[in-house]
Specification:
heterotrimer, A mainly alpha, B alpha/beta, C alpha/beta, A: mainly alpha, MetI-like fold, 10 helices, C: alpha/beta, 2 domains, 9 helices, 9 strands, about 35% helix
Amino acid sequence: MFAVLIGLAVFIPFISPYQPSEQNLSAFLQPPSSEHWLGTDQLGRDLFTRLIYAARTDLKIMVLAEIIPFCTGVFLGMLAGYYGKWLNTLISLLTDTLIAFPFYLIVIIVAFASGAGERGIYITFMLVGWIVFARVVKGLSASFREQEWVASAQTLGLPGVRIILRHLLPNVLPQAIVVLMTDMIGLLVAIVTLGYLGIGITPPTPDWGTMIADGRSFITTAWWLSAVPGLAVVYTGIALSLVGDGLADLWRKK
Amino acid sequence: MEPALQVKNITVQYGGFTALDHVDLSIEQHTTLGLVGESGSGKSTLARVIAGLITPDEGEIWLGSQPLKKKRSREQRKNVQMIFQNPDASLNPKHSIRQILSEALLFHRIVERRQVEQRCKELLARVHIEEGALDRYPHEFSGGQRQRIAIARALSVEPSLLIADEPTSALDVSVQLSVLELFHTLKEELNLTMMFISHDLGVIHAISDNVAVMRQGRLVEVNSKSKFFARPETDYSRELLSAVPRIPTSSRSGGSYEQRI
Amino acid sequence: MASNTVLQVEALSLATKSKKLVDNVSFSLGKGESLGLVGESGSGKSLTLRAVLGLLPRGIEQTGGVIKSDVRSAMVFQDPRGALDPLCPVVAQVAEVIYYRQKVGRKASRIQALELLEMLGLPDSLKRLDRYPSQLSGGQCQRIVIAMALACKPGILLCDEPTTALDVTVQRQIIETITSLQRELGFAMVFVTHNLAIAAALCSKLCVMKEGQIVEHDDTLSLLQNPTNPYTRMLLDSVLPLPELEGSEQ
């Protein structure tokens, strides 16, 4: 399911004959037809094209924004769990404090500081997104540390860094990735919501959130303008969720 | 020749609880010391201190003629290897057997890179595991097999001291004997110096040259095997020995357990 | 069922939906007799015991055979701490069993509980100050569990590896206690263990189980002297010999 989504997003330029921003004012608010698969919006733009381009935008942000927090979170989590004591206390202090700040609040602040748009999302997420990974990985690392295969790595004389990267990481990664899937869904919803509120992606870049917002005024007449992007978000969410479940099952068997 | 291992005045305390209380112990080269004790005796703690996993609050450990510092060097670490009780947790579940065996070999540069594969096969052969195992993962093996692999791993770095902490206790009865025999064979073939911990006196009798008894963090008795089992010096040792359930002979039929006076 | 038989198991089979766990197990137990069920993990010995009690885990069903017993059974489990309520003081736990089973008043239950605990060798200090399981040693907890089992005045005591989790000196004490209690109270016993020596010392009849089936069963002495099945012989060999201790009656 996810593969279909990715596939569409990547290959869209080759599929659609239309440009996303191309306006054709005469083809105003048309319902789905063979020319325009999902109809057009109030500016005559092909909805299907916009939908897919928006997918590219939103998904791209979702993935990019997650990368750095994922890496830092996993890494800090392993450090905290493996070394324990003061390092653990320090990192825990950090996570527990930051988690108190609501994500949206920070995004709004950052948006005001540096202007709306993608950047705000990236910055915010880098600041707070790593926490969830750190916590999960910390717990895992701490419990793994008690296991004898870690002890034997220590007796073999392997330095801590190597133990963390070569031994601990492969064991921690499966669950971290499952968490990643869930986190991405949340982030996607956040991106879309911000777009809807007008603080996120700015037009004319297509984005599901802004599309939903734009369609608001036409709910009664051309309801598909808002509904379709909404469904797209749901579809992505389900797809990610299934990927996460599938991975979890796969790894559990091992 | 100086003893292979000397433990001097080791003390370990956790808060108010004393796990090890000024323990002095030594193991001669190429001998096996059987360490017995009940739960809470500190025998596992002592093993971990010697292996470098726990830092003692007091005392020194000498390996041969060298004292082991708090922060051990790679060389020093590799000279003491340990085999643990729980076969399910002793191997990294995400590493293949090849990785498990070759890692230490490469890290300590014990053999050249191109000889690693061959050495791994030799190690496996020594513990009676077929070489096809190299590509497989720990969960594909039984408890007894995993212990054998753990033994192979420990031996790969050619340690001067091997510590076995209840290596057969978590295994099925039918498998215990074969793993014990393996230890015996290796002991003879490689002239190992070993510290073998068990709560099972039958196992201790089968594998040790000397016996040490621990109780509540203290060393209670050290003796040669023959003396210990026939004529132990302390009452506690006597109590331990007489408490071992034995197969009754014809003079004692089942259905009632003789009271020991 | 003969008047002297307290338990008769005939062709018992237990299985999950996909797998047979116990297959065609039969044995009988007379009044005051002790039967040892010996086997390794996966032999089905614990499940057989649970079937007698009627306490099969979820997913496992009795697919064949009959269990006949006209006396009550009580069970002692392997993990003494797991069998006790950690939030309830021990004397109260025993008293509760007596209260519900013997239908006596609360005060009388407590008195009977204390008597029972004394018979089991627990310290007098419990009379004055009741304690929680976490404050007692493993051996003491197991004695409480035995007391609770005996409080039901059972005709059969089922023991599932009751000493495996205990130190060897404590193990001996518990075994001695069980033996003397059996002499005094006259209950029959089924004792499950993987240690042939313990079973042999305690029981007059032995059943060796492997992978859900009984591979050999006989009187203890005959079994020990002439084991016919190679598996039995293997179990016998796995009890490592110890030399005679000078100065003890062997």
